[in-house]
Design brief:
It is built from 7 helices and 2 strands. By secondary structure, it is mostly helical. It has one domain.
Length: about 170
């Protein structure tokens, strides 16, 4: 990565974190659909990012969100799980010739269908881990599954719309 790409990635990372902490934190639909746009920090990192750096960035991102949400590591655990799953999902889902080469994860680069599928699957992994850790019991399985599905759809739609309205 060039210095300009690193600076651009760091600024995008900070923008998504500030957006999550300041604005999106209060965006809840019907007490079931929560929006977590901060996961885009991990989803939009370049494909060439090593798994070690990916996990470290995911942990730091999760800890920062945990600090402001007062959730004691739940976001960190879910974000690290999502980051760990990301390379497998990329290999399985994205049909781009020469995936080993440098690919940018954006709506423009992947196309609407592939980008939506990529974000939805990783958001589903993140939200499933997050809400089941929060519930800490299988006795609340139906409300937890409703939260997972509604929040996955809400987050995926939000990230896709943000990508749609950015010039990248």
């Amino acid at each position: 990565m060039t210095f300009r790409e690193i600076v651009s990635t760091v600024l995008l990372f900070l923008l998504y974190l500030v957006l999550q902490i300041v604005l999106v934190r209060n965006l809840v639909l019907f007490d079931y659909a929560f929006c977590f746009v901060y996961i885009a920090c991990i989803l939009l990192l370049p494909n060439e990012t090593s798994l070690t750096w990916l996990l470290l960035i995911a942990f730091v991102t999760g800890i920062v969100v945990d600090t402001f949400y007062n959730t004691l590591g739940m976001h960190a655990a879910a974000t690290v799980l999502m980051a760990y799953s990301r390379p497998f999902i990329v290999r399985a889902q994205i049909d781009v010739p020469g995936i080993e080469s440098r690919i940018e994860f954006s709506l423009k680069e992947l196309g609407t269908g592939a980008f939506f599928r990529y974000v939805a699957i990783l958001a589903l992994i993140h939200h499933t881990a997050l809400f089941f850790i929060e519930a800490s019991s299988l006795s609340l399985i139906i409300p937890t599954l409703i939260r997972v599905i509604a929040s996955t759809f809400f987050t995926t739609l939000s990230i896709v719309l943000i990508q749609f309205f950015t010039r990248n």
